[in-house]
């Protein structure tokens, strides 16, 4: 199922089967998308707690992400190609690897910002080719980065609302009805629309 | 069913004068114009039937196939690959057509390159917003107007669009009905003879056109019909005839005719 198909499925229910039941902004597909995204994030977190490896299926791959170097701090970093779903220990990033064939032998390992500062002062980098990374804000930072690596592939969990309409969506097993009902419920409990054009949100 | 049939029916039911002529063509034209508009208003939706919290009339466009068929004559399509679309200027404004009466739909065709480098055309519905909604939505973050989610707002004589770069949209609206006209000529016996749409008649001795044209023995005088029939189907024309009868009953202070017309309006047959 694609992102667009999932939104249309929920729209169909909310509109009572009509293609366009409400021309107002009540059921804007973008709002539906955000609601789905919030439910997905909950499901992702539950999945992370049970078996984090299952999150791989729901990830998106972004190739050719440029590796940049900060002139102020000399830190290597990449701008994340999409918003990252927040997870403990940078688990929202499922994998980073070099884009070239030779670079694929190099292992990228997750760490945290505080651990990274300790790592960078030690001699671990001389012992192997491992590169450590941690996500902070809109960037992912690298420790012991090979200066020959100019771009990387990033496999990461992206929020539902930021995906392309044609992106394939995988709903974790057994969570289909939970997702569907949770999104429907979030709309059915909305207060009725104020149809008076008077700039007043509620009549007294 | 022509104006002649309708007027004959009206005169028969009203039966006010022994000649059978309750109203003449001039009076019929005056009343037909108003009654057609009132019938049109009924099909588009009577605001008088709105209730608090439910701004919906019992009859409205496309509520049933019957109503859709009754109004189909008045639907005007701009664009859709057949006619000229509604052009939007660089200020994001488009002029409302002069014969516009009621909105039906606005569609923007979003053209982009598909994965195989062929043009991909995706229709996007243009949402109609109130003044306040239109002013507020531009600053929204999630629901801001985009090419994929365009919006518009009706103003006096023009429509505002966001984003302003749409350039053109396909537009379907209901136009005003054409004014009905019963045209005729007067024969040598003083009778009004109906002229159907587009019909031409050469006047003979003693005959006269509806606009005062007269027969001339030295030249040929031909009158061309100005008749414009009701643009509704025959079933709807009967409903308009009943509406006309209702006004005639009022004019004649005829209670029995008023009751007949009211009963016909209520029962629909």
Structure keywords:
heterodimer, A: 204 residues, alpha+beta, five-stranded mixed β-sheet, three-stranded antiparallel β-sheet, 8 strands, elongated, B: 269 residues, five-stranded antiparallel β-sheet, four-stranded mixed β-sheet, 29% helix
Give the SSE layout.
The complex is a heterodimer of chains A (204) and B (269).
Chain A: H1 3-14, H2 29-51, E1 60-66, E2 68-69, E3 76-79, E4 93-98, E5 108-110, H3 113-121, H4 124-127, E6 131-136, E7 139-143, E8 151-156, H5 176-188
Parallel strand pairs in A: 5-6
Antiparallel strand pairs in A: 1-8, 2-3, 3-7, 4-8, 6-7
Chain B: H1 3-14, H2 25-44, H3 65-71, E1 75-78, E2 86-87, E3 93-95, E4 100-113, E5 119-125, E6 127-128, H4 131-137, E7 151-154, E8 158-162, E9 168-175, E10 183-186, E11 192-195, E12 200-202, E13 208-209, E14 222-224, H5 234-252, H6 255-267
Parallel strand pairs in B: 6-7
Antiparallel strand pairs in B: 1-9, 2-9, 3-8, 4-5, 4-9, 7-8, 10-11, 10-13, 12-14
Helix pairs in contact in B: 1-5, 2-5, 5-6
């Amino acid at each position: 199922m694609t992102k667009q198909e999932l939104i249309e499925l929920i729209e169909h229910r909310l509109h009572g089967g009509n293609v366009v039941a409400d021309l107002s902004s009540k059921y804007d597909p973008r709002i539906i998308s955000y609601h789905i995204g919030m439910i997905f994030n909950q499901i992702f977190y539950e999945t992370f707690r049970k078996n984090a490896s299952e999150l791989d299926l729901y990830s998106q791959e972004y190739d050719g992400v440029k590796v940049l170097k900060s002139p102020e701090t000399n830190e290597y970093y990449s701008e994340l190609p999409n918003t990252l779903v927040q997870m403990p220990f940078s688990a929202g990033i499922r994998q980073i690897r070099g884009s070239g064939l030779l670079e694929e032998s190099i292992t990228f390992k997750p760490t945290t910002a505080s651990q990274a500062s300790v790592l960078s002062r030690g001699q671990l980098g001389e012992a192997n080719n491992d590169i450590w990374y941690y996500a902070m804000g809109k960037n992912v930072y690298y420790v012991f980065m090979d200066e020959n690596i100019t771009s990387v592939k990033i496999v990461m969990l992206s929020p539902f609302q930021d995906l392309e309409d044609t992106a394939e969506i995988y709903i974790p097993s057994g969570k289909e009805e939970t997702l569907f009902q949770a999104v429907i419920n979030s709309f059915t409990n909305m207060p009725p629309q104020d149809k008076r054009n008077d700039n007043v949100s509620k009549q007294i | 069913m022509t104006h002649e049939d309708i007027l004959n029916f009206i005169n028969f039911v009203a039966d006010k004068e022994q000649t059978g002529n309750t109203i003449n063509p001039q009076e019929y034209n005056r009343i037909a114009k108003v009654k057609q508009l009132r019938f049109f208003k009924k099909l588009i939706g009577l605001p008088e039937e709105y209730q608090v919290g439910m701004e919906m009339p019992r009859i409205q466009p496309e509520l049933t196939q019957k109503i859709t068929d009754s109004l189909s004559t008045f639907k005007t399509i701009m664009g859709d690959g057949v006619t000229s679309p509604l052009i939007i200027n660089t200020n994001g404004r488009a002029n409302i057509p002069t014969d516009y009466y009621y909105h039906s739909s606005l569609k923007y065709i979003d053209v982009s390159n598909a994965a195989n480098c062929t043009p991909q055309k995706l229709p996007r519905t243009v949402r109609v917003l109130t003044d306040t909604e239109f002013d507020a939505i531009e600053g929204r973050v999630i629901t801001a107007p985009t090419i994929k989610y365009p919006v518009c707002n009706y103003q006096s004589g023009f429509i505002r669009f966001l984003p302003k770069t749409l350039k053109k949209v396909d537009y379907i609206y209901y136009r005003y009905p054409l004014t009905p006209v019963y045209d005729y000529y007067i024969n040598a016996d003083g009778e009004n003879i109906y002229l159907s749409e587009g019909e031409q008649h050469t006047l003979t001795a003693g005959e006269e056109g509806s606009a005062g044209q007269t027969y001339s023995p030295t030249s040929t005088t031909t009158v061309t019909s100005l008749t414009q029939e009701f643009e509704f189907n025959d079933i709807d024309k009967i409903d308009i005839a009943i509406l006309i009868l209702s006004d005639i009953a009022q004019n004649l202070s005829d209670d029995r005719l008023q009751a007949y017309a009211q009963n016909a309006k209520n029962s629909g047959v």
